[in-house]
Design a protein that fits this description.
about 180 residues, globular, about 70% helix, single chain
């Protein structure tokens, strides 16, 4: 019962905080974030499997993904090179994430395993939300792909998390568990 009450309260607070995202997702085509998501879905719709995308009637769609910045890099790659390139990048990210999760689970210490899993899963969800945003499904806030953003604070946090992750992977554990 307490978990259900916390879940309902969290859902109410999330909807109150992210109402503009929810409105843009449910009613695309308007102003604000809903318009950008509509444009990004149009870009994904006009993308071919291989090669540059088909011409679109909405010239602002091409201008939106051509703006300088790295937040819309997956959408730009999708339109310029096709679904095959985006799927290849996603497959590489999935393989790297699977290898990192497997290595994190095999740590000698429970604390090392938990620290490594939290770092890896945080970056995995960051990448998944960024890919969903770039395909026009922006129900959650995205801060960009890990290490492909212009925000120096996000880059600093990602670098610190990666340093912690590499430290755990290098030593095998950050704390030795007692053998009982």
């Amino acid at each position: 019962l307490p978990a259900a009450a916390c879940g309902i309260a969290g859902g109410v607070f999330w909807v109150a905080e992210h109402r503009s995202l929810l409105d843009g997702w449910l009613h695309p085509g308007g102003a604000g974030s809903g318009y950008l998501f509509s444009v990004l879905r149009d870009v994904a719709d006009k993308a071919r499997f291989f090669g540059p995308g088909l011409p679109t009637e909405r010239t602002e769609a091409l201008e939106a993904i051509a703006e300088p910045g790295l937040e819309l890099l997956p959408a730009t790659l999708l339109y310029e090179y096709g679904w095959i390139f985006l799927l290849a990048v996603a497959a590489l990210l999935a393989a790297a994430a699977a290898a990192a999760v497997r290595r994190a689970v095999r740590q000698g210490s429970m604390l090392g395993s938990l620290v490594a899993l939290s770092a890896v899963l945080g970056m995995v969800f960051q990448a998944l939300f960024a890919l969903a945003d770039n395909l026009g499904f922006g129900l959650f806030d995205s801060i960009g792909m890990p290490f492909f953003t212009q925000s120096s604070a996000v880059l600093l946090i990602n670098a610190a998390v990666t340093g912690l992750l590499l430290s755990v992977f290098r030593s095998g554990s950050t704390f030795r568990d007692r053998k009982t």
